[in-house]
Amino acid sequence: MIKNYPPISLGTAFFKELDYSLFISNALEAGYTHLDLAARYLNEKKIGKALKDNNVDRNSLIITEKIWPCDYKENRFFKAYDEMLNRVGLTYFDIVLLHKPVKDYLGAYQRLISLREKGLVKHIGVSNFSKKQIEEIYQKFNEYPEINQIETNIYYYDLETIEYCKEKGIVVEGYSPILNKKSREEKVILDLAKKYQKDATQIILRFIYQLGITPVVKSSSLKHLKSNNDIWNFIISEEDMNLIKGLRKKDFRPLKKLLDFFGDRMNFHPEKEKI
Question: Which CATH class is domain 9-180+214-231+254-263?
Fold first, then answer.
């Protein structure tokens, strides 16, 4: 288990024009210490330049990177890792995850282990992996991933995988916690926001945190960044937690279409493709 893991992470999946230097400046001012990157986001060079522009002390940040399946093969994996480091302008990543459980993910995990053994990364893990797939990793390598980053919002969270990960000491991160405007307008959420004198987003993020999950938030606004990181001075009661749990929808994955879309585009190259 990773000690002193940050209770909140800041995502960087911005598929739009953005002042990245200002984004990093705002993130630092709002107190974030963990950045979540991915080759698939196609913005590593911009993130790297923004870190340099802000004279960020490398030791002050935990930086996660995610490898896309097109680079899982042995003849691409290690070169792809070097390319990611070069794009961000770093000499190492703190955490590296496999982005999706497709293709030869067991072979790719073996190569993650090699990176760690060579001292090129501190911690390794996975993203979008189920209990079954994590168990396959354990059976083959006699170790569990240190992190599993999965879809988590008030409508969908994989309880089986979450409880399994917690039992095995695996950090669970939840991406897309604030799914959409509708989730912030649920009556239960608005009523609790009034009760706890917080806004709707803070209620949702606190709920996810109390499930034992590290939320991966996303915003470039200083106001929202500060607000999202201001959820530590209250506790949602068990009764109210159960009210929010009542919003969960059986057999409903809001982001499945998006994941399927990306799943059909495994062979993109981050240096060439534009979104």
Answer: alpha beta
Which H helix or E strand runs over 94?
Answer: strand 93-98
Question: Which 3 state secondary structure label does DSSP give 46?
Answer: helix
Rounded Cα distance between 246 and 135, Å, is 29
Q: Is the pLDDT of residue 1 over 90?
A: no
Give the global pTM. 0.92
Q: Name which of 69, 112, 73 is nearest 93 in CA terms.
A: 112
pLDDT category of residue 274 using cuts at 50, 70 and 90 = very low
Please tell me the distance from the alpha carbon of residue 178 to that of residue 175, in angstroms, as a whole number.
9
| 105 class by beta-carbon count within 10 Å (0-12 exposed, 13-18 middle, 19+ buried) | buried
- Round to whole Å and give the CA distance between 84 and 12: 15
| Mean pLDDT, range 147-175, rounded to an integer | 96
